[in-house]
Design a protein that fits this description.
Oligomer: heterodimer
Helix content of chain B: under 10%
Number of helices of chain B: 0
Radius of gyration of chain B: 16 Å
Structural class of chain A: mainly beta
Shape of chain A: globular
Strand content of chain B: over 45%
Shape of chain B: globular
Distance between the termini of chain B: 40 Å
Structural class of chain B: mainly beta
Strand content of chain A: 35-45%
Number of helices of chain A: 0
Order of helices and strands of chain B: EEEEEEEEEEE
Order of helices and strands of chain A: EEEEEEEEE
Chain lengths: 110, 130
Amino acid sequence: QSVLTQPPSVSAAPGQKVTISCSGSSSNIGNNYVSWYQQLPGTAPKLLIYENNKRPSGIPDRFSGSKSGTSATLGITGLQTGDEADYYCGTWDSSLSACVFGGGTKLTVL
Amino acid sequence: QVQLQQWGAGLLKPSETLSLTCAVYGGSFSGYYWSWIRQPPGKGLEWIGEINHSGSTNYNPSLKSRVTISVDTSKNQFSLKLSSVTAADTAVYYCAREIRGYVVVVAATPGYYYYYMDVWGKGTTVTVSS
């Protein structure tokens, strides 16, 4: 059981937009910044979004992040088949004094 | 650019101690925290713990009694030991560089922690089986 809650799967057609939610509490998302990671099959996770909505160098602006209260959202526009991956949200939990992740969401581009 | 190279035993028997090492190449070692994360087959990510160049550590409360993370600054390496392993410890283990800090956005109000991993190792598969 993950501390952060994500939908197990989402799907959309190529070129469309999809959002992935991440729900937490006041001890984690509510009072700390959120990051998002993309894990392509058989590879290590890759940082996609940090500090709620910032993109590392090289990440296209098709990827965006937002936060409201105790929830965060990853948005992906102009879906491509290469975006098929597992996506994880993460943050610091001030009560646990530990990093916590969501259970992951599998994106299928139909 | 920074690269992380990790290695260690891939097959263990129950009750043995898992031992992995991660070497940091191409960047500063002392300015960061370094962490271990694992991913059981078909499951999500689990943070194991972290260490900085001074040897200051934080561990996941659920694993704290079995985990030791250490650092060798002379080699720019950090290591993970997990004792008394069981089949539940079978996973891909990743090392990663952390970016972490605390920001006060509005003076005299509580701040926010920012915490993320920006560089990852390729992962080491560890299987625990009798």
